[in-house]
Amino acid sequence: MPKLGMEPIRRSALVEATISEIGERGTLDVTVSQIAKRAGMSSGLAHHYFGSKEQMFAAAMRHILTLYGAEVRGALAMAKSPRERIEAIIRASFGVAQFRPEMVSAWLNFYVQAQKSEDARRLLHIYQRRVRSNLHHAFRQIAGEEALTLTRGLAAMIDGLYIRQALRADLMSPGAAVDVLMHYLDTSLAKSTPR
Amino acid sequence: MPKLGMEPIRRSALVEATISEIGERGTLDVTVSQIAKRAGMSSGLAHHYFGSKEQMFAAAMRHILTLYGAEVRGALAMAKSPRERIEAIIRASFGVAQFRPEMVSAWLNFYVQAQKSEDARRLLHIYQRRVRSNLHHAFRQIAGEEALTLTRGLAAMIDGLYIRQALRADLMSPGAAVDVLMHYLDTSLAKSTPR
Amino acid sequence: MPKLGMEPIRRSALVEATISEIGERGTLDVTVSQIAKRAGMSSGLAHHYFGSKEQMFAAAMRHILTLYGAEVRGALAMAKSPRERIEAIIRASFGVAQFRPEMVSAWLNFYVQAQKSEDARRLLHIYQRRVRSNLHHAFRQIAGEEALTLTRGLAAMIDGLYIRQALRADLMSPGAAVDVLMHYLDTSLAKSTPR
Amino acid sequence: MPKLGMEPIRRSALVEATISEIGERGTLDVTVSQIAKRAGMSSGLAHHYFGSKEQMFAAAMRHILTLYGAEVRGALAMAKSPRERIEAIIRASFGVAQFRPEMVSAWLNFYVQAQKSEDARRLLHIYQRRVRSNLHHAFRQIAGEEALTLTRGLAAMIDGLYIRQALRADLMSPGAAVDVLMHYLDTSLAKSTPR
DNA sequence: AATGAATGAGCCTTCATTCAT
DNA sequence: AATGAATGAAGGCTCATTCAT
User: Fold this and answer.
1) Which residues span the membrane (chains A, B, C, D) (predicted)?
2) Which residue of B has its CA nearest to A192?
3) Which of A147, C119, C143, D74 could potentially form a cystine with A139 if both were Cys, beta carbons 3.0 to 4.6 Å apart?
């Protein structure tokens, strides 16, 4: 009998190696061999488990989004007010797990790939829409008719801060990013709420 | 008989073809032949003028940044107050020339490439720093110690709104994007500097 | 505990799966895995029993030829005259067992492989020579000096009718093929030996 | 300016190299590199001109069939009676150009490929039907109701003699093959024509 | 006996780049 | 100046074969 149950182990190793390799090099131009080597196996085996490079990429993207989704869900579970729900999303977006340069870089690359790949785009939209919907819902309860504008503004600011990280320029700690967002939240809600 | 002055014409045609091709396909994975064909010449000639694909990309990126820089400079020239200077930058960022999907898409792709290419990164930073510095300077005059936070927030929001355009999702007109930014500006300055 | 006597069962299953797979796909471009799967086992086991793909093919070819040889031998055993011996070979060649599309297709593929593989060629020749010799012997008794020509003609016609079956074009029933051959036999012998 | 008009030269060289390579090795398992090398160029160039291996094979097959078709047409043009038309087809099939071992072997391999490839099958059928129809037409004029049987028999015999050549066994000169066929023609028509 | 894991060689194909004309 | 010819390196993918269990 061969070693049993290697499949989940191998798949997982490949997914992580894919993210690391893409993140480190800062591009989707990585070869299957590079990824396989980093995951400690031959390129043939990588194909055995994933069928194609494209499917490996898809699995890696799904993994990143799943992690993010879990982080958001976890944070939302503890929020007790609309305001706390918004803050939960902000904090989840900049949690240590998400804000690692390598992770951010891989994310950005998949983000760009979504322009070209229908699959990637669909996947991305599902998560974006979910977060956006949460934000909008919360804002509607506390910001009235300005909800849409605030949702758009906050979401854009999150993306902007997040993505800038990938450039490794203007380096900001997660905390600093959260501060910027909180400041936006404070001032915009202060105006909405009559003094 | 050599046609005199062909060089600038050819180079310009190639730069524009590069941007169009990348923008249309949504990826840097375009071939020199595709670009050359779109520019109405052979791939050999493209190499003759640019030496390498990488240099063609660099020229295209420089072109985009130059256009943007000119737009910003033009807008700044007419601004008469710090607040107007900030608004000028916002409007320049979402002027029709910059906000064309094809342009945005090409920009995003170069943005990502900056992670990998030292040259691209340097180029990008020069322009980013210039704009950032303008913003910061203006905010310092009207927002005091919150200037840094506001600069970061506004810059991030610009990037976020801009880049989202590339995904062709959550489509927003330039006007809507400017509205979101203006709203941010209003609320955050209202708090700092009661009118 | 090892099941005793599995070897012949496994080998036989693989040989039949090889023929079916090749016959169905119409090409020798089948993988060991496909064959093993059809035979209900892993590819590793197929190698365990045959050592290599080539040897599996050889066994399959040998199997086809053995079946054909048995069919011919059985038919010859009942023949009582030269003419009947020739007819026996004709009928054996187009017996239901031999004329199945799948079988014909596999045969044709091995036929072609004989150009490349010394082993396959040798195997094929042994059987061809045997049949040819039987035909020639019979013809010599009833067609005199035209025996060689008739042998060649009849053998070629058998091959031609047989092989055309593989193309699944100009479909002819076994009976129709036999009719054509019998007609040839009738006319050519009528001339040689007026009844 | 580059060397002009290389395309037809290169394509032709590749088609001939394809036939030679397949014919010599006796199998379609030849690599593009082998073919390109034999044709005196790089594999990249072969792809440049044909796009894919499959299309190279198709061109080679078409070439063989075109040559054969031309040979048949030429021979038919000079025939003055039904009998002569039949003989023309026989002679064309075994003309020196067609009967070269290498040519025969390549033909056989394409013949087999027609089982798998729809394109190859279609191509082959077009030529087969044309020849078959010529034969049938001629036989109807001189053999009455036995025309179909004779057409089938003769066509099968041609195929059988031709294909056997590929095995390089039972080697027969073109002349000998023609003799066998002529003998069939003589005897079968002698019977049809009342003595 | 039997399996799934694992490797690595080899093939098709693409493409930046160079070159002869 | 300009072109199409030409190369060759590199990558994705397949698959026969081997191996540990």
Assistant:
1) none
2) B187
3) A147
**Contact of A160 with B159, CB cutoff 8 Å:** yes
Burial class (CB in 10 A: 0-12, 13-18, 19+), D148: middle
Structural domains for chain C: 54-192 (1.10.357.10)
Q: Choose the closest CB to A157 out of B29, B157, B170.
A: B157
Compute CA D192 distance to the chain's CA centroid, rounded to the nearest angstrom: 30
Chains in touch with B (3+ beta-carbon pairs under 8 Å) read A
A95-127: per-residue pLDDT in tens?
A: 877 788 889 999 999 999 998 988 899 999 999
A28-65 per-position pLDDT tens digit: 999 999 999 999 999 999 999 999 999 999 999 999 99
Phi, psi of A105 (to 5 degrees): -65, -45
Which amino acid does the sequence have at A41? M
Residue from B103, B102, B156, B99 nearest A166 by CA: B156
Residue D168 has pLDDT above 80, yes or no: no
Environment class of D52 (CB within 10 Å of its CB; exposed 0-12, middle 13-18, buried 19+): exposed
**The pLDDT value given to residue A102:** 87
Enter the pTM of the model: 0.92
* pLDDT greater than 90 at residue B170: no
| Three-state secondary structure call for residue C139 | helix
In chain B, residues 78 through 137 whose Cβ sits under 7 angstroms from any atom of nucleic acid strand E:
none
Q: Which of B48, B161, B17, B141 is nearest to B99 (CA)?
A: B161
Please give the single-letter amino acid code of residue C15. V
So what's the pLDDT on residue C178?
A: 95
Question: Which of strand E's nucleotides are less than 7 A from any protein C-beta?
Answer: 1-21
Residues of chain B in contact with residue A149, where contact means CB-CB under 8 angstroms, are 179-180, 183
Average of per-residue pLDDT across C109-133:
91
* Strand F and C19 CB separated by under 7 Å: no
**Partner-chain residue, chosen from C109, C116, C160, that has the shortest CB–CB distance to D26:** C116
| Min Cα separation A175/chain B (Å) | 12
